[in-house]
Design brief:
By secondary structure, the chain is of the alpha/beta class. It contains 12 helices and 9 strands. Helices cover 41% and strands 20% of the residues. Adenosine monophosphate (AMP) binds next to α3 and β5.
């Protein structure tokens, strides 16, 4: 059975105890509503470390839209079952007060790459992400932490933060896990209506097939997506679209 840790003090004590002090630790931060994408990160951590810690925390500071935060899926019981099936050692499941005793007076800002792509469309999003990841990495003190390439901009920003602040945890990127029809797995996919779910795979299909941004934007719009952005940065094409109220992101190497 997985051990559930809710307080920072409890984890710190355990981390310094004889049972964990000399073990290699892999860490997978998540916002829950776990799916095969998350499980692939856990699998990689289990293969590369003696102990695997998963965190579940729906981080309010990274949601620029309060409605998005409110409807974000929360499936705690189901998540626990999945974590037990994967034989994850520890779940770190802190309360808001535990992580934001400062009431978000302190934050981590990046001034350039966080301002484009998703950053341009979700003001403050990456500040929230970097702040919470900094806190979690400092608490867990893992040897390695695993992040999905599904959120490639996020991965690059976190890697940059860890390098910049000489943090000790190695950031490990993990490939995007997709449904059979190509749709990148995401906790938000469960919010799609039946009709939207049928249309959703066209997002990746168009993004990976077409050669230029204008063409992709036109085809996505024609297919029924509301395009947030499609943009190329350093040999990678990033895109975000809406299907109804649900925001989907994806990226492909070019
Ligand atoms: P989230 O719970 O959405 O914050 O995601 C937690 C971690 O899982 C992040 O590092 C994501 O990039 C990663 N992740 C989410 N979906 C996928 C996916 N389809 N494939 C690979 N990694 C993913």
């Amino acid at each position: 059975m997985i051990s559930i840790i809710k307080s920072v003090a409890e984890w710190k004590e355990l981390r310094n105890s004889e049972s964990l002090k000399n073990k290699t630790i892999g860490f997978v931060p998540t916002m829950g509503a776990l799916h095969e994408g998350h499980l692939s990160l856990i699998e990689k951590s289990k293969n590369e470390n003696e102990i695997t810690v998963v965190s579940i925390f729906v981080n309010p500071t990274q949601f620029n839209d309060p409605k998005d935060l409110e409807k974000y899926p929360r499936t705690y019981e189901d998540d626990l079952q999945k974590l037990n099936r994967t034989k994850t050692d520890y779940l770190f499941y802190p309360s808001h007060n535990e992580l934001y005793a400062d009431k978000f007076r302190y934050e981590i800002n990046e001034k350039e790459f966080s301002q484009i792509l998703c950053g341009a469309h979700r003001p403050g999003h990456f500040t929230g992400v970097l702040t919470i990841v900094m806190k979690l990495l400092n608490i867990v003190k893992a040897d390695k932490a695993y992040f999905g390439e599904k959120d490639y901009q996020q991965y690059l920003l976190i890697k940059g933060m860890v390098d910049t602040f000489f943090m000790d945890t190695k950031i490990v990127p993990c490939p995007i896990v997709r449904e059979k029809d190509g749709l990148a797995m995401s906790s938000r996919n469960m919010l799609l209506s039946k009709q939207e779910r049928i249309l959703a795979p066209k997002f990746f299909e168009i993004l990976s097939k077409e050669k230029n941004n204008e063409e992709i934007i036109a085809k996505l719009a024609y297919s029924g997506f509301k395009v947030d952005y499609v943009d190329e940065v350093e040999n990678r094409r990033y895109a975000a679209v809406y299907l109804g109220n649900v925001r989907l992101i994806d990226n492909v190497k070019i």
